[in-house]
């Protein structure tokens, strides 16, 4: 039932909304609208945009390849250490971005835990485009896993059981029965994962560096523009803000609702 909120809750809630809205309105108000097209078509900006789309696209593909099975495992099976695995999935979401970058260096860098084996295979992730993709996957895949796990947990298993009785294997059941039924949650998780990868900054600059044409994505370009061209930084920030807002408006809260359905 809908009712008027008590004043003691409505007032601080409105202050909270104003606090969140003011910085975003600041970007819109200070954007150089007259020269926006010229700034956004600057070769350095378009190169950063191209790289951002490349990195976030590959990050989404890799996250789907690993995140969908991981979400299914967490939602559909019980095993020893499940709580630990779920905690590991959530950890990148709460780690400081620079700490995530340091962790990647210590794990996958030249002197990291897997640095030697990777070097022997000719793979060098730090300060490369591949390293930027790895950083984006590390921080964005949890959004996909959490969204999909919640939907899978709320899905009745008798549909999958019926498919199994008709001879469908686990992969066939997952592809033809399970994933179509949680399609909205999968789409929502994928969109959040992609948006998070597109906006990744801290882990990328720590692990992959800020190399134009190789690892300098749009967020890193904003960081550089702030030093010499604040108006340009605001213009590029406006693009990222618009993309993020478009994703959230399109989802309309689906990542919070059971089974991926909109609560409204």
Describe the structure in your own words:
- With 264 residues, this protein is mainly alpha-helical.
- It has one domain: MetI-like (MetI-like fold, Orthogonal Bundle).
- The protein is 73% helix and 0% strand.
- The protein contains 13 helices and no strands.
- The chain is globular.
- The two termini are 13 Å apart.
- The C terminus is likely disordered.
Radius of gyration: 21 Å
Low-confidence stretches at least 5 residues in length (pLDDT < 50)? 257-264
The sequence of SSEs as H and E is: HHHHHHHHHHHHH
Query: In angstroms, what separates the terminal alpha carbons?
Result: 13 Å
Strand content: under 5%
InterPro entries: MetI-like, MetI-like_sf, ModB_ABC, NifC_ABC_porter, Sulph_transpt2
GO molecular function, one term: ABC-type sulfate transporter activity
Function: Part of the binding-protein-dependent transport system for molybdenum; probably responsible for the translocation of the substrate across the membrane.
Protein name: Molybdenum transport system permease
List the helices and strands and how they pair.
Blueprint: H1 7-30, H2 36-40, H3 43-76, H4 82-94, H5 97-108, H6 115-120, H7 129-153, H8 158-165, H9 170-181, H10 183-198, H11 202-207, H12 218-228, H13 230-251
Helix pairs in contact: 1-13, 3-7, 3-10, 4-7, 7-10, 8-9, 10-13, 12-13
Salient structural properties:
264 residues; mainly alpha; MetI-like fold; 13 helices; globular
Summarize the structure.
Helices cover 73% and strands 0% of the residues. The protein contains 13 helices and no strands. The protein is globular.
